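Batch manifest, entry 17 of 40.
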Amino acid sequence: MTRYLRPDSPEYEAVRRPAMPQYGEVRPAVIAQCETPADVAEVLAEARKEGLPVVPRSGGHCFAGRSSTTGVVLDVSPMSSVEVSDDVAVVGAGTRLSRLYDALDAVGVTIPAGCGPTVGIAGLTLGGGIGVLGRSHGLTCDSLLAAEVVLADGRIVTCSAEQDSDLFWALRGAGGGQFGVVTRLWFSTLPTPVATRFHLTWSRADAVGVIDSWQHWAPYAWDELSASLRVTATEIHLFGLTTGEFSAPMEVSPTFAVVEQLPYRRLKESLVGLGDDPDAGESMAVSKSEFFAGPLPVAVIEELLRDAPGDVNFTPMGGAYNRVPATATAFAHRDTAFLLELVGTDRAKLAQVFSPLEPYGTGRVYTNFPDPTLDDALTAYHGENLGRLREVKRAYDPEGFFTFPQSL
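Output type: structure tokens
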């Protein structure tokens, strides 16, 4: 049964706020907390009749505010069951990563996905899903076997490689709120790995040399190793895991280093928030990012570090990410070396700082890091897959019910 929260409901204020605080003042007309696909279909029918926009919400972490609306927030968080059998996990779309990892760990399996404990599995998967096991096992969406979806007209379909295959293709990398409301996902699992966690730090003064070493090494390392880099105002953090050997061929010696084998569940938890300022409080962060196919010149790195108004994050790609053809799923970014993200509070400033980087980038942007300032957002997000995605959109949402800025 659907639970409706309106502005006069006692829980409304707490529930309406998404994870991104900059969108915390958006006030939905109603929040519909759905327990079943039939509940979702009922809410969609009522919204169509009333002419209200609908926004599905799993975790509420969208950088562009797509988890909020003045219309109907369709909250799938009550659908948070996790069942595992025969190397397949069946996961409710409202499941947060912390609950998912706990349930999987209890039976000795996992899936490749991110670290953020409150991130929703649906949004992460539908945009691709980058994580510390990605270089060895691919994107989260590469492990997706099937998805249950409620379409705008109320039909409930279960799509896979064999059934409604075009929709299944589109959901793996471009599915966030564009084709329907995903209510359940099937994943292939893998045995919980024996892994080594590492965390090395340097002074900010060493940033140019550390970044230059990292970009020539981490994206091309053996698949079992995933080493991310975070540059803050005072420090540089190299962190990640390896299921094989660990070495970091950096030209500058770190000021701190810990390399330890941990149970995988504890290891994932230990990577959350590395480098965060404990006194920063609630952050009104926005980001600017792009995929890069090769190293940046040292002079460009120096300019970036001089002007960056906040953190600079580098995520290695390569490995299993890039062994899937760009057209095999809707996630088109299969030939990149790393993802570079600037985080700050001022979009205009971030765009200004990012400008010198653009000649060296691919022009492609991770769908889960949406950027409202992009001139040609659909090409940036979807590349050569854009044409086919538009065909899928016409087939499954011909009236364009599911729409938002930069949607298909």
